[in-house]
Design a protein that fits this description.
Length: 607
Protein backbone atom coordinates (compact mmCIF):
# COMPACT_ATOMS: atom_id res chain seq x y z
CA UNK A 1 0.00 0.00 0.00
CA UNK A 2 2.90 2.33 0.84
CA UNK A 3 4.40 1.73 -2.59
CA UNK A 4 1.10 2.70 -4.22
CA UNK A 5 0.97 6.12 -2.61
CA UNK A 6 3.44 7.84 -5.03
CA UNK A 7 1.60 6.28 -7.97
CA UNK A 8 -1.76 7.42 -6.60
CA UNK A 9 -0.34 10.90 -6.06
CA UNK A 10 0.86 11.06 -9.67
CA UNK A 11 -2.51 9.86 -10.94
CA UNK A 12 -4.30 12.45 -8.81
CA UNK A 13 -1.91 15.15 -10.00
CA UNK A 14 -2.48 14.22 -13.64
CA UNK A 15 -6.23 14.17 -13.11
CA UNK A 16 -6.04 17.57 -11.47
CA UNK A 17 -3.93 18.89 -14.34
CA UNK A 18 -6.44 17.57 -16.86
CA UNK A 19 -9.29 19.15 -14.94
CA UNK A 20 -7.40 22.45 -14.70
CA UNK A 21 -6.67 22.32 -18.42
CA UNK A 22 -10.35 21.76 -19.19
CA UNK A 23 -11.31 24.61 -16.87
CA UNK A 24 -8.65 26.83 -18.42
CA UNK A 25 -10.04 26.17 -21.90
CA UNK A 26 -13.56 26.84 -20.74
CA UNK A 27 -12.60 30.07 -19.04
CA UNK A 28 -10.52 31.33 -21.98
CA UNK A 29 -13.24 30.89 -24.60
CA UNK A 30 -15.37 34.05 -24.94
CA UNK A 31 -19.13 33.69 -24.83
CA UNK A 32 -19.52 34.97 -28.40
CA UNK A 33 -17.78 31.83 -29.71
CA UNK A 34 -20.16 28.98 -30.39
CA UNK A 35 -18.65 25.58 -30.94
CA UNK A 36 -15.04 24.49 -30.77
CA UNK A 37 -11.85 26.48 -31.14
CA UNK A 38 -9.69 24.73 -33.72
CA UNK A 39 -6.01 24.75 -32.71
CA UNK A 40 -3.34 23.77 -35.25
CA UNK A 41 0.47 23.69 -35.16
CA UNK A 42 2.55 25.11 -38.02
CA UNK A 43 6.23 24.17 -38.01
CA UNK A 44 8.78 22.12 -39.97
CA UNK A 45 7.98 23.02 -43.57
CA UNK A 46 4.84 24.89 -42.61
CA UNK A 47 4.54 28.26 -40.93
CA UNK A 48 2.09 31.06 -40.10
CA UNK A 49 3.05 33.62 -42.71
CA UNK A 50 3.39 31.61 -45.93
CA UNK A 51 2.35 28.04 -45.02
CA UNK A 52 5.90 26.99 -45.87
CA UNK A 53 5.82 28.45 -49.38
CA UNK A 54 8.13 31.40 -48.82
CA UNK A 55 8.07 34.38 -51.13
CA UNK A 56 8.88 32.34 -54.25
CA UNK A 57 6.12 29.85 -53.58
CA UNK A 58 3.57 32.53 -52.79
CA UNK A 59 4.30 34.20 -56.12
CA UNK A 60 4.13 30.93 -58.06
CA UNK A 61 1.31 28.94 -59.57
CA UNK A 62 -1.58 27.85 -57.31
CA UNK A 63 -0.42 25.04 -55.05
CA UNK A 64 -2.00 21.78 -56.30
CA UNK A 65 -4.10 19.44 -54.19
CA UNK A 66 -3.08 15.79 -53.97
CA UNK A 67 -6.75 14.80 -54.42
CA UNK A 68 -8.59 17.75 -56.02
CA UNK A 69 -11.96 16.30 -55.01
CA UNK A 70 -10.99 16.02 -51.36
CA UNK A 71 -8.32 18.58 -50.43
CA UNK A 72 -7.15 18.34 -46.85
CA UNK A 73 -7.56 21.20 -44.36
CA UNK A 74 -3.80 21.79 -44.52
CA UNK A 75 -3.87 22.00 -48.32
CA UNK A 76 -6.82 24.37 -48.27
CA UNK A 77 -5.12 26.58 -45.71
CA UNK A 78 -1.92 26.71 -47.74
CA UNK A 79 -3.79 27.70 -50.89
CA UNK A 80 -5.97 30.23 -49.01
CA UNK A 81 -2.84 31.93 -47.68
CA UNK A 82 -1.28 31.94 -51.14
CA UNK A 83 -4.37 33.38 -52.85
CA UNK A 84 -4.73 36.03 -50.14
CA UNK A 85 -1.14 37.15 -50.63
CA UNK A 86 -1.48 37.24 -54.42
CA UNK A 87 -4.74 39.16 -54.18
CA UNK A 88 -3.21 41.96 -52.09
CA UNK A 89 0.54 42.30 -52.70
CA UNK A 90 2.64 42.88 -55.81
CA UNK A 91 4.81 39.78 -55.85
CA UNK A 92 5.98 40.27 -59.44
CA UNK A 93 9.68 40.23 -60.36
CA UNK A 94 9.83 44.02 -60.86
CA UNK A 95 7.72 44.99 -57.86
CA UNK A 96 10.45 44.92 -55.23
CA UNK A 97 8.63 42.91 -52.57
CA UNK A 98 11.20 41.21 -50.35
CA UNK A 99 13.97 43.39 -51.80
CA UNK A 100 12.86 47.02 -51.50
CA UNK A 101 10.22 46.56 -48.83
CA UNK A 102 8.49 43.73 -47.01
CA UNK A 103 9.68 40.19 -46.31
CA UNK A 104 8.29 36.68 -45.90
CA UNK A 105 10.40 35.01 -43.20
CA UNK A 106 9.61 31.61 -41.74
CA UNK A 107 7.38 32.17 -38.66
CA UNK A 108 6.47 28.93 -36.85
CA UNK A 109 3.62 28.92 -34.39
CA UNK A 110 0.02 28.02 -33.66
CA UNK A 111 -3.38 29.06 -34.98
CA UNK A 112 -6.63 29.33 -33.02
CA UNK A 113 -9.73 29.57 -35.17
CA UNK A 114 -13.45 29.71 -34.38
CA UNK A 115 -16.84 31.02 -35.44
CA UNK A 116 -17.92 34.14 -33.54
CA UNK A 117 -21.40 35.62 -33.34
CA UNK A 118 -22.66 39.13 -32.79
CA UNK A 119 -25.88 39.41 -30.78
CA UNK A 120 -28.82 38.88 -33.09
CA UNK A 121 -26.71 37.87 -36.09
CA UNK A 122 -27.98 35.18 -38.41
CA UNK A 123 -24.50 34.11 -39.52
CA UNK A 124 -21.11 34.04 -37.81
CA UNK A 125 -17.86 35.67 -38.73
CA UNK A 126 -14.60 33.75 -38.61
CA UNK A 127 -11.97 34.78 -36.09
CA UNK A 128 -8.39 33.57 -36.13
CA UNK A 129 -5.37 34.16 -33.93
CA UNK A 130 -1.91 33.48 -35.29
CA UNK A 131 0.50 33.08 -32.38
CA UNK A 132 4.20 32.89 -33.28
CA UNK A 133 6.48 30.69 -31.19
CA UNK A 134 8.61 33.80 -30.77
CA UNK A 135 5.77 35.80 -29.24
CA UNK A 136 7.42 38.54 -27.20
CA UNK A 137 6.03 38.17 -23.68
CA UNK A 138 8.05 41.17 -22.49
CA UNK A 139 6.56 43.54 -25.07
CA UNK A 140 3.11 42.10 -25.49
CA UNK A 141 1.65 43.03 -28.85
CA UNK A 142 -1.60 42.03 -30.55
CA UNK A 143 -2.27 43.20 -34.10
CA UNK A 144 -5.93 43.04 -35.14
CA UNK A 145 -7.11 43.20 -38.75
CA UNK A 146 -10.21 42.64 -40.84
CA UNK A 147 -10.01 41.15 -44.31
CA UNK A 148 -9.85 43.42 -47.32
CA UNK A 149 -12.69 43.42 -49.83
CA UNK A 150 -14.97 40.48 -49.14
CA UNK A 151 -12.11 38.04 -48.70
CA UNK A 152 -11.84 35.19 -46.24
CA UNK A 153 -10.02 34.96 -42.96
CA UNK A 154 -6.48 35.32 -44.36
CA UNK A 155 -7.43 38.41 -46.36
CA UNK A 156 -5.22 40.75 -44.29
CA UNK A 157 -2.18 38.50 -43.92
CA UNK A 158 -0.02 40.48 -46.38
CA UNK A 159 -0.43 43.57 -44.20
CA UNK A 160 -1.06 42.56 -40.58
CA UNK A 161 0.67 39.18 -40.65
CA UNK A 162 3.69 40.26 -42.67
CA UNK A 163 4.30 43.24 -40.38
CA UNK A 164 3.30 41.80 -37.01
CA UNK A 165 4.35 38.16 -36.92
CA UNK A 166 8.10 38.67 -37.52
CA UNK A 167 8.10 41.24 -34.68
CA UNK A 168 6.81 38.67 -32.22
CA UNK A 169 3.27 40.04 -32.22
CA UNK A 170 0.24 37.82 -32.17
CA UNK A 171 -2.17 38.65 -35.01
CA UNK A 172 -5.96 38.34 -34.75
CA UNK A 173 -8.11 38.36 -37.88
CA UNK A 174 -11.79 38.54 -38.71
CA UNK A 175 -13.46 37.97 -42.07
CA UNK A 176 -16.04 40.58 -40.87
CA UNK A 177 -19.02 38.55 -42.06
CA UNK A 178 -17.71 38.03 -45.59
CA UNK A 179 -15.50 35.29 -47.02
CA UNK A 180 -15.76 32.46 -49.53
CA UNK A 181 -17.81 30.04 -47.44
CA UNK A 182 -20.17 29.71 -50.39
CA UNK A 183 -23.23 27.51 -49.97
CA UNK A 184 -24.17 25.40 -52.99
CA UNK A 185 -27.82 24.38 -53.14
CA UNK A 186 -27.05 21.79 -55.82
CA UNK A 187 -25.66 19.46 -53.14
CA UNK A 188 -26.75 21.42 -50.04
CA UNK A 189 -23.16 21.96 -48.91
CA UNK A 190 -21.18 24.74 -47.30
CA UNK A 191 -17.84 25.19 -45.57
CA UNK A 192 -16.86 23.76 -42.18
CA UNK A 193 -14.49 25.38 -39.71
CA UNK A 194 -11.48 23.57 -41.21
CA UNK A 195 -12.27 24.83 -44.75
CA UNK A 196 -13.55 21.52 -46.12
CA UNK A 197 -16.99 21.10 -47.67
CA UNK A 198 -19.77 19.65 -45.52
CA UNK A 199 -23.49 19.10 -46.01
CA UNK A 200 -26.21 20.86 -44.13
CA UNK A 201 -26.72 19.25 -40.73
CA UNK A 202 -23.33 17.52 -40.57
CA UNK A 203 -21.55 20.28 -38.66
CA UNK A 204 -21.62 24.02 -38.06
CA UNK A 205 -21.05 25.80 -41.35
CA UNK A 206 -19.50 29.17 -42.05
CA UNK A 207 -22.71 30.12 -43.83
CA UNK A 208 -25.92 28.09 -43.86
CA UNK A 209 -28.85 29.87 -45.54
CA UNK A 210 -32.45 28.62 -45.26
CA UNK A 211 -33.36 25.52 -47.29
CA UNK A 212 -34.33 26.08 -50.91
CA UNK A 213 -34.54 24.03 -54.14
CA UNK A 214 -31.29 22.88 -55.73
CA UNK A 215 -31.83 25.20 -58.72
CA UNK A 216 -31.49 28.20 -56.35
CA UNK A 217 -27.80 28.27 -57.22
CA UNK A 218 -25.07 29.67 -54.97
CA UNK A 219 -25.52 31.63 -51.75
CA UNK A 220 -22.80 34.09 -50.71
CA UNK A 221 -22.44 35.16 -47.09
CA UNK A 222 -21.71 38.85 -47.70
CA UNK A 223 -24.69 39.23 -50.05
CA UNK A 224 -27.17 36.81 -48.51
CA UNK A 225 -26.60 36.51 -44.77
CA UNK A 226 -29.45 38.87 -43.95
CA UNK A 227 -27.20 40.73 -41.50
CA UNK A 228 -25.98 43.77 -43.49
CA UNK A 229 -22.47 42.87 -42.30
CA UNK A 230 -20.93 46.21 -43.27
CA UNK A 231 -22.91 47.91 -40.51
CA UNK A 232 -21.17 45.62 -38.00
CA UNK A 233 -17.60 45.58 -39.30
CA UNK A 234 -16.37 47.58 -36.33
CA UNK A 235 -18.01 45.14 -33.91
CA UNK A 236 -16.39 42.25 -35.77
CA UNK A 237 -12.99 43.86 -35.20
CA UNK A 238 -13.71 44.37 -31.50
CA UNK A 239 -14.68 40.73 -31.14
CA UNK A 240 -11.52 39.66 -32.97
CA UNK A 241 -9.46 41.69 -30.49
CA UNK A 242 -11.20 40.08 -27.53
CA UNK A 243 -10.83 36.64 -29.12
CA UNK A 244 -7.12 37.30 -29.53
CA UNK A 245 -6.71 38.26 -25.88
CA UNK A 246 -8.68 35.20 -24.81
CA UNK A 247 -6.53 32.86 -26.87
CA UNK A 248 -3.39 34.45 -25.42
CA UNK A 249 -4.82 33.64 -21.99
CA UNK A 250 -5.22 30.06 -23.14
CA UNK A 251 -1.73 29.86 -24.59
CA UNK A 252 0.01 31.50 -21.61
CA UNK A 253 -2.12 30.80 -18.52
CA UNK A 254 0.71 31.71 -16.17
CA UNK A 255 0.84 35.20 -17.72
CA UNK A 256 -2.92 35.71 -17.93
CA UNK A 257 -4.95 37.78 -18.07
CA UNK A 258 -3.94 39.55 -21.27
CA UNK A 259 -5.64 42.93 -21.32
CA UNK A 260 -5.38 46.30 -23.01
CA UNK A 261 -3.46 47.46 -19.94
CA UNK A 262 -0.60 45.00 -20.44
CA UNK A 263 -0.87 44.22 -24.17
CA UNK A 264 -0.69 46.87 -26.89
CA UNK A 265 -3.46 46.32 -29.43
CA UNK A 266 -2.75 47.73 -32.90
CA UNK A 267 -5.57 47.76 -35.44
CA UNK A 268 -4.94 47.87 -39.17
CA UNK A 269 -6.59 46.97 -42.47
CA UNK A 270 -6.79 47.63 -46.19
CA UNK A 271 -9.83 48.74 -48.21
CA UNK A 272 -12.93 47.31 -46.55
CA UNK A 273 -10.58 46.12 -43.81
CA UNK A 274 -9.38 49.70 -43.40
CA UNK A 275 -12.98 50.86 -43.16
CA UNK A 276 -13.61 48.19 -40.53
CA UNK A 277 -10.60 49.46 -38.55
CA UNK A 278 -12.01 52.99 -38.55
CA UNK A 279 -15.47 51.74 -37.63
CA UNK A 280 -13.93 49.86 -34.70
CA UNK A 281 -11.97 52.95 -33.62
CA UNK A 282 -15.26 54.82 -33.30
CA UNK A 283 -16.77 52.05 -31.18
CA UNK A 284 -13.79 51.50 -28.86
CA UNK A 285 -15.46 52.90 -25.76
CA UNK A 286 -13.33 50.72 -23.48
CA UNK A 287 -10.02 52.03 -24.80
CA UNK A 288 -8.79 48.67 -26.12
CA UNK A 289 -6.77 50.07 -28.99
CA UNK A 290 -3.30 51.58 -28.72
CA UNK A 291 -3.26 52.81 -32.33
CA UNK A 292 -4.90 52.44 -35.74
CA UNK A 293 -3.39 52.44 -39.25
CA UNK A 294 -5.98 52.30 -42.04
CA UNK A 295 -5.05 51.92 -45.71
CA UNK A 296 -7.39 53.09 -48.52
CA UNK A 297 -10.41 52.65 -46.23
CA UNK A 298 -13.96 52.20 -47.46
CA UNK A 299 -15.19 54.74 -44.94
CA UNK A 300 -18.48 56.64 -45.05
CA UNK A 301 -18.81 59.86 -43.04
CA UNK A 302 -22.30 61.18 -42.25
CA UNK A 303 -23.08 63.91 -44.77
CA UNK A 304 -19.53 63.92 -46.19
CA UNK A 305 -17.94 62.37 -49.25
CA UNK A 306 -19.98 59.75 -51.09
CA UNK A 307 -21.20 56.28 -50.19
CA UNK A 308 -19.66 53.33 -52.04
CA UNK A 309 -23.01 52.27 -53.47
CA UNK A 310 -23.59 55.76 -54.89
CA UNK A 311 -20.35 56.09 -56.82
CA UNK A 312 -20.13 52.38 -57.72
CA UNK A 313 -23.50 52.42 -59.48
CA UNK A 314 -22.59 55.71 -61.17
CA UNK A 315 -19.28 54.24 -62.32
CA UNK A 316 -20.95 51.07 -63.58
CA UNK A 317 -23.24 53.15 -65.79
CA UNK A 318 -21.01 55.95 -67.07
CA UNK A 319 -17.38 54.83 -66.98
CA UNK A 320 -17.58 52.45 -69.96
CA UNK A 321 -18.83 55.38 -72.04
CA UNK A 322 -16.50 58.03 -70.59
CA UNK A 323 -13.43 55.86 -71.13
CA UNK A 324 -14.16 55.92 -74.84
CA UNK A 325 -12.89 59.48 -74.92
CA UNK A 326 -9.67 59.85 -76.91
CA UNK A 327 -7.83 61.18 -73.85
CA UNK A 328 -7.79 57.61 -72.52
CA UNK A 329 -6.32 55.94 -75.61
CA UNK A 330 -3.03 55.29 -73.81
CA UNK A 331 -4.56 54.02 -70.56
CA UNK A 332 -4.01 50.36 -69.60
CA UNK A 333 -7.27 48.37 -69.84
CA UNK A 334 -9.19 51.22 -71.52
CA UNK A 335 -8.65 49.54 -74.89
CA UNK A 336 -8.33 45.94 -73.64
CA UNK A 337 -10.17 43.03 -75.27
CA UNK A 338 -13.86 43.26 -74.44
CA UNK A 339 -13.90 47.04 -74.27
CA UNK A 340 -14.92 47.31 -77.91
CA UNK A 341 -18.54 47.12 -76.75
CA UNK A 342 -18.20 50.14 -74.47
CA UNK A 343 -19.54 52.59 -77.11
CA UNK A 344 -22.83 50.68 -76.88
CA UNK A 345 -23.13 52.01 -73.34
CA UNK A 346 -23.00 55.54 -74.73
CA UNK A 347 -25.75 54.69 -77.22
CA UNK A 348 -27.90 53.07 -74.53
CA UNK A 349 -27.59 56.04 -72.18
CA UNK A 350 -28.38 58.40 -75.06
CA UNK A 351 -31.45 56.37 -76.02
CA UNK A 352 -32.77 56.75 -72.46
CA UNK A 353 -32.20 60.49 -72.42
CA UNK A 354 -29.25 60.34 -70.03
CA UNK A 355 -26.73 61.67 -72.54
CA UNK A 356 -27.15 64.16 -75.35
CA UNK A 357 -25.44 64.17 -78.70
CA UNK A 358 -25.66 61.66 -81.49
CA UNK A 359 -21.98 60.82 -82.00
CA UNK A 360 -20.05 58.40 -79.76
CA UNK A 361 -17.26 60.91 -79.22
CA UNK A 362 -19.72 63.55 -78.04
CA UNK A 363 -21.47 61.08 -75.76
CA UNK A 364 -18.15 59.94 -74.27
CA UNK A 365 -17.16 63.54 -73.60
CA UNK A 366 -20.49 64.17 -71.87
CA UNK A 367 -20.16 61.04 -69.72
CA UNK A 368 -16.66 62.16 -68.76
CA UNK A 369 -17.91 65.68 -67.92
CA UNK A 370 -20.67 64.20 -65.76
CA UNK A 371 -18.21 62.15 -63.74
CA UNK A 372 -15.87 65.11 -63.32
CA UNK A 373 -18.77 67.26 -62.11
CA UNK A 374 -19.58 64.61 -59.51
CA UNK A 375 -16.08 64.59 -58.01
CA UNK A 376 -14.20 62.06 -60.15
CA UNK A 377 -10.66 63.31 -60.79
CA UNK A 378 -8.98 62.45 -64.09
CA UNK A 379 -6.12 60.34 -62.61
CA UNK A 380 -8.76 58.36 -60.71
CA UNK A 381 -10.81 57.79 -63.87
CA UNK A 382 -7.69 56.56 -65.65
CA UNK A 383 -6.97 53.87 -63.05
CA UNK A 384 -10.68 53.07 -62.78
CA UNK A 385 -10.39 51.65 -66.30
CA UNK A 386 -9.03 48.48 -64.68
CA UNK A 387 -12.04 48.10 -62.36
CA UNK A 388 -14.32 48.75 -65.33
CA UNK A 389 -12.59 46.24 -67.60
CA UNK A 390 -12.84 43.58 -64.88
CA UNK A 391 -16.57 44.32 -64.40
CA UNK A 392 -16.01 45.07 -60.70
CA UNK A 393 -18.60 47.85 -60.50
CA UNK A 394 -21.49 45.59 -61.46
CA UNK A 395 -20.27 42.82 -59.15
CA UNK A 396 -19.96 45.22 -56.21
CA UNK A 397 -23.29 46.94 -56.80
CA UNK A 398 -25.30 43.71 -57.14
CA UNK A 399 -23.78 42.13 -54.01
CA UNK A 400 -24.03 45.24 -51.86
CA UNK A 401 -27.61 45.94 -52.90
CA UNK A 402 -28.52 42.43 -51.78
CA UNK A 403 -26.65 42.88 -48.48
CA UNK A 404 -28.19 46.27 -47.74
CA UNK A 405 -31.70 45.02 -48.48
CA UNK A 406 -31.05 41.76 -46.60
CA UNK A 407 -32.05 39.60 -49.55
CA UNK A 408 -31.50 35.89 -50.01
CA UNK A 409 -30.14 34.08 -53.07
CA UNK A 410 -33.61 33.73 -54.62
CA UNK A 411 -34.71 37.38 -54.41
CA UNK A 412 -31.65 39.55 -55.05
CA UNK A 413 -32.54 43.05 -56.27
CA UNK A 414 -32.98 43.68 -59.98
CA UNK A 415 -33.15 39.98 -60.85
CA UNK A 416 -29.50 39.14 -60.15
CA UNK A 417 -28.41 35.74 -58.89
CA UNK A 418 -25.30 33.58 -58.51
CA UNK A 419 -24.93 30.18 -60.10
CA UNK A 420 -22.16 27.83 -61.12
CA UNK A 421 -20.90 28.44 -64.63
CA UNK A 422 -21.99 25.57 -66.86
CA UNK A 423 -21.56 24.70 -70.53
CA UNK A 424 -21.33 27.72 -72.80
CA UNK A 425 -21.20 30.05 -69.81
CA UNK A 426 -24.80 29.35 -68.91
CA UNK A 427 -25.95 28.59 -65.35
CA UNK A 428 -25.25 25.00 -64.41
CA UNK A 429 -23.87 22.90 -61.58
CA UNK A 430 -20.39 23.30 -60.16
CA UNK A 431 -17.59 20.96 -61.05
CA UNK A 432 -16.86 19.05 -57.80
CA UNK A 433 -13.15 19.92 -57.86
CA UNK A 434 -13.91 23.61 -58.35
CA UNK A 435 -16.47 23.52 -55.54
CA UNK A 436 -13.96 21.86 -53.21
CA UNK A 437 -11.48 24.73 -53.74
CA UNK A 438 -13.88 27.66 -53.30
CA UNK A 439 -12.95 28.41 -49.70
CA UNK A 440 -9.27 28.67 -50.62
CA UNK A 441 -9.60 30.44 -53.96
CA UNK A 442 -12.74 32.59 -53.75
CA UNK A 443 -12.52 36.35 -53.25
CA UNK A 444 -15.85 36.58 -51.42
CA UNK A 445 -17.91 38.23 -54.17
CA UNK A 446 -18.44 36.37 -57.46
CA UNK A 447 -18.06 36.21 -60.39
CA UNK A 448 -14.95 34.07 -60.35
CA UNK A 449 -13.75 30.58 -59.50
CA UNK A 450 -16.49 28.93 -61.54
CA UNK A 451 -19.36 31.07 -60.17
CA UNK A 452 -21.16 33.55 -62.40
CA UNK A 453 -23.30 36.60 -61.76
CA UNK A 454 -26.46 36.14 -63.79
CA UNK A 455 -29.66 38.10 -64.31
CA UNK A 456 -30.05 41.84 -64.45
CA UNK A 457 -29.93 41.64 -68.23
CA UNK A 458 -32.19 41.87 -71.25
CA UNK A 459 -31.89 41.48 -75.03
CA UNK A 460 -30.79 45.05 -75.67
CA UNK A 461 -27.60 45.76 -77.61
CA UNK A 462 -26.09 46.56 -74.20
CA UNK A 463 -27.70 43.73 -72.23
CA UNK A 464 -26.26 44.77 -68.84
CA UNK A 465 -27.65 48.29 -68.96
CA UNK A 466 -31.15 47.47 -67.68
CA UNK A 467 -29.85 45.82 -64.52
CA UNK A 468 -27.44 48.65 -63.84
CA UNK A 469 -30.18 51.24 -64.27
CA UNK A 470 -32.29 49.26 -61.82
CA UNK A 471 -29.45 49.24 -59.26
CA UNK A 472 -28.93 52.98 -59.74
CA UNK A 473 -32.65 53.62 -59.27
CA UNK A 474 -32.42 52.07 -55.82
CA UNK A 475 -30.11 54.94 -54.89
CA UNK A 476 -31.91 57.74 -56.72
CA UNK A 477 -35.52 56.64 -56.19
CA UNK A 478 -38.04 57.23 -53.43
CA UNK A 479 -39.62 53.80 -53.20
CA UNK A 480 -39.83 51.69 -50.06
CA UNK A 481 -36.84 49.69 -51.36
CA UNK A 482 -34.83 52.85 -51.94
CA UNK A 483 -35.57 54.13 -48.47
CA UNK A 484 -34.58 50.76 -46.98
CA UNK A 485 -31.31 50.83 -48.92
CA UNK A 486 -30.49 54.35 -47.71
CA UNK A 487 -31.29 53.35 -44.15
CA UNK A 488 -28.96 50.35 -44.41
CA UNK A 489 -26.15 52.50 -45.81
CA UNK A 490 -26.69 55.08 -43.05
CA UNK A 491 -26.05 52.26 -40.56
CA UNK A 492 -22.52 51.86 -41.98
CA UNK A 493 -21.39 55.39 -41.19
CA UNK A 494 -18.35 55.79 -38.96
CA UNK A 495 -18.22 57.36 -35.50
CA UNK A 496 -15.58 59.61 -33.98
CA UNK A 497 -12.59 57.91 -32.34
CA UNK A 498 -11.40 59.07 -28.94
CA UNK A 499 -9.21 62.20 -29.11
CA UNK A 500 -6.07 60.53 -27.72
CA UNK A 501 -6.00 57.59 -30.15
CA UNK A 502 -2.98 57.60 -32.51
CA UNK A 503 -4.56 57.25 -35.94
CA UNK A 504 -2.98 57.23 -39.39
CA UNK A 505 -4.88 57.07 -42.67
CA UNK A 506 -3.15 56.27 -45.97
CA UNK A 507 -4.73 56.44 -49.40
CA UNK A 508 -3.54 56.33 -52.99
CA UNK A 509 -4.05 59.60 -54.81
CA UNK A 510 -4.93 57.58 -57.93
CA UNK A 511 -7.28 55.09 -56.24
CA UNK A 512 -9.81 54.20 -58.93
CA UNK A 513 -12.00 51.94 -56.80
CA UNK A 514 -12.43 53.88 -53.55
CA UNK A 515 -11.49 57.42 -54.61
CA UNK A 516 -9.89 59.36 -51.77
CA UNK A 517 -12.11 62.37 -52.50
CA UNK A 518 -15.15 60.30 -51.55
CA UNK A 519 -13.60 58.46 -48.58
CA UNK A 520 -10.39 59.36 -46.75
CA UNK A 521 -10.36 63.06 -47.68
CA UNK A 522 -13.84 63.46 -46.21
CA UNK A 523 -13.01 61.38 -43.12
CA UNK A 524 -9.80 63.20 -42.28
CA UNK A 525 -11.39 66.64 -42.84
CA UNK A 526 -14.25 65.60 -40.54
CA UNK A 527 -11.82 64.51 -37.83
CA UNK A 528 -10.00 67.82 -37.99
CA UNK A 529 -13.26 69.74 -37.69
CA UNK A 530 -14.12 67.66 -34.63
CA UNK A 531 -10.84 68.37 -32.87
CA UNK A 532 -8.99 65.15 -33.71
CA UNK A 533 -5.44 65.09 -35.10
CA UNK A 534 -5.07 62.16 -37.53
CA UNK A 535 -2.03 61.69 -39.71
CA UNK A 536 -2.82 61.43 -43.40
CA UNK A 537 -0.68 60.29 -46.29
CA UNK A 538 -2.25 60.69 -49.73
CA UNK A 539 0.42 58.88 -51.70
CA UNK A 540 1.12 60.16 -55.23
CA UNK A 541 0.78 57.53 -57.96
CA UNK A 542 -0.62 54.88 -55.62
CA UNK A 543 -3.86 53.20 -56.64
CA UNK A 544 -6.12 50.57 -55.08
CA UNK A 545 -4.76 47.20 -56.15
CA UNK A 546 -1.09 46.52 -55.46
CA UNK A 547 -1.65 43.11 -57.03
CA UNK A 548 -2.39 44.84 -60.37
CA UNK A 549 1.12 46.30 -60.44
CA UNK A 550 2.46 43.09 -61.91
CA UNK A 551 0.22 43.52 -64.97
CA UNK A 552 1.79 44.90 -68.15
CA UNK A 553 1.52 48.66 -68.46
CA UNK A 554 0.25 49.15 -64.92
CA UNK A 555 3.22 48.80 -62.58
CA UNK A 556 5.24 51.27 -64.65
CA UNK A 557 2.79 54.03 -63.69
CA UNK A 558 2.05 53.35 -60.02
CA UNK A 559 3.68 52.67 -56.65
CA UNK A 560 2.70 50.03 -54.06
CA UNK A 561 0.64 51.35 -51.15
CA UNK A 562 1.59 48.41 -48.92
CA UNK A 563 5.12 49.77 -48.49
CA UNK A 564 3.75 52.93 -46.89
CA UNK A 565 1.44 50.93 -44.64
CA UNK A 566 4.45 49.09 -43.23
CA UNK A 567 6.24 52.43 -42.72
CA UNK A 568 3.28 53.89 -40.81
CA UNK A 569 3.07 50.79 -38.62
CA UNK A 570 6.82 51.06 -37.97
CA UNK A 571 6.31 54.62 -36.73
CA UNK A 572 3.43 53.54 -34.51
CA UNK A 573 5.61 50.76 -33.06
CA UNK A 574 8.36 53.26 -32.30
CA UNK A 575 5.84 55.43 -30.49
CA UNK A 576 4.37 52.59 -28.44
CA UNK A 577 7.52 50.61 -27.60
CA UNK A 578 10.43 53.02 -28.00
CA UNK A 579 8.82 56.13 -26.48
CA UNK A 580 9.16 58.16 -29.66
CA UNK A 581 6.68 61.05 -29.66
CA UNK A 582 3.66 60.71 -31.91
CA UNK A 583 4.15 63.34 -34.62
CA UNK A 584 1.68 66.12 -35.24
CA UNK A 585 2.45 65.85 -38.96
CA UNK A 586 4.56 63.69 -41.26
CA UNK A 587 5.44 64.91 -44.77
CA UNK A 588 3.80 62.92 -47.54
CA UNK A 589 6.43 60.91 -49.41
CA UNK A 590 7.27 62.24 -52.87
CA UNK A 591 6.64 58.90 -54.54
CA UNK A 592 7.22 58.47 -58.23
CA UNK A 593 6.53 55.57 -60.62
CA UNK A 594 9.27 53.05 -61.31
CA UNK A 595 8.89 53.19 -65.09
CA UNK A 596 9.91 50.17 -67.16
CA UNK A 597 12.60 49.00 -64.73
CA UNK A 598 12.47 47.34 -61.36
CA UNK A 599 11.26 49.22 -58.31
CA UNK A 600 13.99 50.92 -56.26
CA UNK A 601 13.67 52.31 -52.76
CA UNK A 602 14.51 55.83 -53.88
CA UNK A 603 11.38 55.99 -56.03
CA UNK A 604 9.22 55.38 -52.97
CA UNK A 605 10.79 58.17 -50.88
CA UNK A 606 10.13 56.17 -47.73
CA UNK A 607 11.16 57.82 -44.44
Amino acid sequence: MTRLRPLLFVIALLAGTAAASAEEKRMSTPDFVRGPVRVTEHRQGDDLLSAGLGLTGLAGLPVPFFDPLHPTPAELRRRAIQSSWKGIADLGPLGGYGRVYGAVPNVPGREYQAFAWLPGARSPHRVLLQLPDAFDTRRRCLVVAASSGSRGIYGAIALAGAWGLPRGCAVAYTDKGTGAGYFDYADDSGVALDGTRAHRGETTLEFEPPPAPRETGIAVKHAHSGDNPEADWGRHVLQAARFGLSMLDRAYPALAPFTAQNTRIIVTGISNGGGAALQAAGLDDDGLFAGVVALEPNVHVPGQGRALYDYATEAALYLPCALGDARFDDVPFARAPGTQAWPLRCAGLHARGLLEGSLPATQAAQAYARLRAHGWEEPVIRTAAASTAFDLWRAIAAAYASAYLRRGPRDMPCGFRYAAVGAGGLPGEADPATRASWWADGSGIPPGNGIGLYGGADFDMDPMLSGLLCLRALWEGDTAQSRALHEAIAATTVRLPRPSLPLWVLHGADDGLLPAAFTSDAYVAWLHREGRAPLYWKIPHAQHFDAFLSLPGFGERHVPLLAYGYAALDRLWAHLYESRPWPAEVPVPAARPRGAGALERATLDLP
